[in-house]
Design goal:
Helix content: 25-40%
CATH architecture: 2-Layer Sandwich
Largest sheet: 3 strands, antiparallel
CATH class: Alpha Beta
Structural class: alpha+beta
Radius of gyration: 13 Å
Strand content: 25-35%
Number of strands: 5
CATH topology: first zn-finger domain of poly(adp-ribose) polymerase-1
Mean pLDDT: 83
Oligomer: single chain
Low-confidence stretches: none
Number of domains: 1
Shape: globular
């Protein structure tokens, strides 16, 4: 990855959906942008971002990850929570 930036948005001017859990974001949240093969940007709830960061840090493939964090988060966290 060439670069990645995480910015805190304190007072959003419109409603967004969380990239990780797909629920509406109504207040303070994280705006993540960067460039790997392509430019990317997304927004997440602060809690979802923290849970995804923990999930990635605990993953055995973290140094060679080729996954979309949204797909991993859905499979590992959201699906596991429903069981």
């Amino acid at each position: 990855m060439e670069f990645c930036s995480v910015r805190i948005v304190k007072n959003p001017t419109k409603e967004h959906k969380c990239y990780l859990c797909n629920l509406p974001i109504l207040g303070e949240h994280k705006y993540i942008s960067g460039r790997g093969d392509d430019f990317f940007s997304y927004r997440t709830h602060n809690d979802c971002f923290e849970k995804a960061t923990e999930m990635c840090n605990d993953c055995s493939n973290r140094n060679d990850c080729q996954c979309d964090i949204g797909a991993c988060f859905y499979e590992e966290y959201l699906q596991g929570r429903k069981q």
